[in-house]
Amino acid sequence: MQYYHHEQLEKMKAKGFNWKLDGILQKYFPENDKWGADVCFDKDNNLDFVEINKLSEVTQHGAMWTHYVTIGKLGVDTWEVYSQFNGKNENELWVFGYYKNFGDACRRIRLGVEKLKPIKIY
């Protein structure tokens, strides 16, 4: 798992933050040449969501990363797994599930969201 910015990695590994989240991401997405994360923090510096990206192409001009899925924090014990740019016109957001902890969400994503049917479509 690679992070989009070095600062995101530092925040994720900080002991004052929930540093276990980085360990969970590294456990389920260990390949640096396949998975990447863009982490967004709220105004209070708490984790808001993690966008998981997948390496889709490497050329001599660089690498192309594609949005795979997002894990958003909805509350203290609720994580929502969703993906953007779906549907015929690639303008739909699909919600795949709700999980009680971050690890369960990551485990499900690692099994592949391609096999999942959305439970909500926006």
Question: Could you explain how this protein is built, in words?
Answer:
Helices cover 21% and strands 45% of the residues. A hairpin with a 5-residue loop joins strand 2 and strand 3. The chain has helices at 6-13, 20-28, 102-110; strands at 2-3, 35-41, 47-59, 62-75, 78-86, 92-99, 120-121. A 7-stranded mixed sheet has the order 1-2-3-4-5-6-7. It contains 3 helices and 7 strands. The two termini are 29 Å apart. Helix 2 (20-28) packs parallel to helix 3. It has one domain. The mean pLDDT is 86. With 122 residues, it is an alpha+beta fold. 20% of the residues are buried. The longest helix has 9 residues, at 20-28.
Low-confidence stretches: none
Number of strands: 7
Number of helices: 3
Following the backbone from N to C, one meets helices and strands in this order, namely EHHEEEEEHE
What fraction of residues sit in β-strands?
over 45%
Helix content: 10-25%
Which structural class should the secondary elements be placed in? alpha+beta
Q: Which word captures the global form? A: globular
Largest sheet: 7 strands, mixed
CA-to-CA gap between the ends?
Answer: 29 Å
Strand order of the largest sheet: 1-2-3-4-5-6-7
Round the mean pLDDT to the nearest integer and report it. Answer: 86
